[in-house]
Amino acid sequence: MPVLDGFDTPARLPEPDDAGRAAWSARVAGIVAPLAARFEQFFDPTVTDVPDDALAPPIVWNAFPATLLQSATSQEQRWRVADGSRDRQDEYCEWSVERDGTGMITRVTFTSEVPEYYEHLAAQDPDRLLALYRELVGPQVELDQLIVGGRYRRDNVLNRSTEGRLAHLVQRNNTLGAALVLAAEATVLRHDAAGEPVTTAQALVRCGGLGEPLRNSDPQIAAATNDAAATGAEVSLQDPMGLYLDGLLTAGMRTPDGEDPATFWTIERGDAEHALRASYAVPPERGYAVGDITLDGRPIRFGPSWRPGRRPAHRPGAARRAPTGAAAVRGLTAGPAGGATGSGSRAGGPVRVEGRGTGPGRGPETSPGRGHSARRAGPRRRGTSPRASRGTRPAHLLRQQPRT
Predict the structure, then answer these.
(1) Do residues 254 and 293 make contact, with C-beta atoms less than 8 angstroms apart?
(2) Are residues 387 and 276 in the same domain?
(3) Is the distance from CB of 99 to CB of 281 less than 8 angstroms?
(4) What pTM, to 2 d.p., does this model score?
């Protein structure tokens, strides 16, 4: 596969002209180039060619905030906390909930869309930014609510709530820059005090400062990247770089009329392979709402859900009611000739998000020093990377074999 002419927009969203495409590519290059210069086994696909035999396995993790498994005392409390603040939704997937006058859930909207793209729109064409907000959030949006003091506000008043409709990711760690930093820093092989390689997921995160060891995303990404790097692979992320929703996992969900619950999952931005935004709602003609659907026999009351049995040590307690199917994010690495490979099952569990690029690197997106992993490398190679556990995913990782 030849060197890329430039970085494409997330999910290859259309740009009206070459200037817009070039501006987005330059924005991504401004993150990738310094990382490629600093980390020997992280390469820039706009500078280095990718062989046709490069492999691109995905990384998947559950998108429900795993940190709440430690801080909350009951399953219902976890759901309430996750539904109550976007700051707690730190697995590269955020959501907001709409309810009717009785408090019943009518729609849940999920996003994995990075804020950098909206900053790009604000810089290139504020009118497009406004039109998009009015489409996604509501017709009442005004430009001065989005751009304050000449600068786009990621956490503007219209994009910080867990109620209604949201625009894009806003939690400070959920950015493309953080994901790229995580990927690059994870290419560094690490050893413990005894000189033994550090290979377990949580240990890698703690040792390398690669994010939050209690998250689903960071340890999965770090371990998968580290495994790839240990083979000597040279690593990058598949274009278009981003984070993508993988699908809705509906195991245990039952509808009043027997319809397949997956039927009500609608991708609103992107496509099936690169879903940036999706919603879950029952059409009015069905005569019931999301809140009438049951999960494991209990009516849905909350936006997220943690599927029992996925991690035996974290089985939910006897909450009276259940949330919606849990969310998950996936990360895809580039496959042969740049193709995406393998996406986890799209049914039978929570909502999933896939991402192109590594998972969130928990730190300032411009801080290459933070340990966030996408892949580590020993000798330079381009090859494949292992698939992480099911859940959210960052972009596919490109692996190449060493050059001779």
Answers:
(1) yes
(2) yes
(3) no
(4) 0.78
